Amino acid sequence: MPVSPPSTSAPSAQVVPPSAEPHGSASAEHDARGASGPRRWWILLILALTQLLVVLDGTIVNIALPQAQLELGLTDTQRQWVVTAYALAFGALLLLGGRIADYWGRKRTYLLGMVGFGVASLLAGLARNGTELIAMRGLQGVFAALLAPAALALLTVSFPRGKDRNTAFAVFGSVAGVGAAVGLVLGGALTEFADWRWCLWVNVPVVLVALVAGALLIRESKAEGDNRYDVLGTVVVVLGLGSLVYGFTLAEHSWVAPETIGCLAAGVVLITLFVWIESRVAQPLLPLRVLTNKVRAGAFLLQAIFGALMIGALLYLALHLQIVLGLSPLHAGLGTLPMTIMTLVLAPVITQLLPRFGPRPLMIGGPLVAAAALLYLSRITVGGSYAVEILPALIVLGVGMAMVLVPLQNVALSGVEPHDAGAASATVNASMQIGGSIGLSVFTTIYAGVVAGAVVTDEASQLAAFVDGYSAAFVATAVTLVVGAVIAAVLIRGPKEQLLPQGDQVAVHLG
């Protein structure tokens, strides 16, 4: 999501020497600036809208799932896979999507991804049964895997350095943070006043607007030099990630079943094989120096943990609001809005604080703040009040998310050379989606285990079992966030000037 050679210290931003300028072109001075003038701020608006689209699609169906389950006759496992299919296809193919963006052209990849995403959304809304819905959600994920890394790579080359880059990434990161909650609100409104299928069809007009604006405003950019695809690495990593996520899904029924153990073991072996392949091919799908830089690795892991929070934990919050508290889809969506508002309010404040304090204190403290919110949320009861049991936790959770998500993507992409902007960007997004897929599978396993162990005699005891399961999922998320704070403290180290790009650091080729 190539970069400077790996080291054991924080990544240092480097000026590309004149001899390394692409083609030695006379336009190098313009290239180093990325997109120029007001146009790049319009580009930021388009790319932020794109990020909102792919992130909110991870949660927009959450509110609609109870109605979709009734209409299509989904089992509980199918209900989970409506969410997992999107996140898994998205995350597993993102690295390939990033390389396609680098080699074929970021603008071309972006526009193709938009078209495919719109078509898949239309077909998903027309689904007649659970199998069709899950398949089309997976197809959405496939095209999102083209769209997302191309968008982030275009942002990277449009804002290559300095204060404007910090602002652009703060906006982009904030959209990523609030997108999940926006999906819940929008999904609630569409489900209540239209139909759950509009949670999928709503993408189509957004896609049309983004296509026209992107075609007019975005300039093509791509990596120069020898660009060959790592087909073997792609197949191995897709199979490995798929095996891991499916194994965690099977664990809902039994951790010791041969199928569960086999899938998890196969996933570990295939991911290990992928690392071995990447260390030996000339044009790797994921250059290992991207991961061996410890600061960047820490950012990727933190992104995965927050993916588990936004994709996994928020699903159970949506279910609690509707099934236990009895809120309508719209009110359940609006019930998550305080978290979004808090994140948006704090984003510009944190952006101003970044140059002074650097990202490290925020990326350590943010997960701890969010963990405290989840622990408070785990105290929910069947007859509890939203104002007492839910609202305070959401406000604090919004604070924690803003602290991490504003600087996170900037840190993750610091020091990445233009040749690998797509691959590095893909790793950022893949971390969130795979983290969300695995997190949702693990949280579902914990939830299902608690519910299965409850004694259910009537509706009240059934609701109590649900609440105990949701609480257990929230506690598991809180523990995961604490681990994230430890990871940030250990790996994200170094002077703040090295953790965020400063000055003229990279030269890019736009054409």
How is this structure best described in words?
It is a single chain. The protein has two domains: 28-221 and 285-499, Up-down Bundle (Growth Hormone, Chain: A); 230-284. It is an all-alpha fold and 511 residues long. The protein has 20 helices and no strands. Residues 1-34 and 502-511 have low confidence and may be disordered. The chain has helices at residues 28-33, 39-56, 60-72, 76-104, 106-125, 130-158, 162-193, 198-201, 203-217, 231-250, 258-278, 288-292, 294-324, 329-335, 337-357, 360-377, 386-413, 421-452, 459-491, 496-499.
The CATH superfamily title of the largest domain = MFS general substrate transporter like domains
Indicate the mean pLDDT: 80
Low-pLDDT segments: 1-34, 502-511
Level-1 CATH class name of the largest domain:
Mainly Alpha
Helix-strand string: HHHHHHHHHHHHHHHHHHHH
Instruction: Please provide the count of β strands.
Output: 0
Q: Which second-level CATH architecture of the largest domain applies?
A: Up-down Bundle
* N-C termini distance: 21 Å
Strand content is under 5%
> How many domains make up the coordinates?
2
Protein name: MFS-type transporter EfpA
Region (Disordered): 1-32
Transmembrane segments: 41-61, 81-98, 110-127, 139-157, 169-188, 200-218, 230-249, 255-277, 298-318, 330-350, 362-378, 390-413, 434-457, 469-492
Pfam family, one: MFS_1
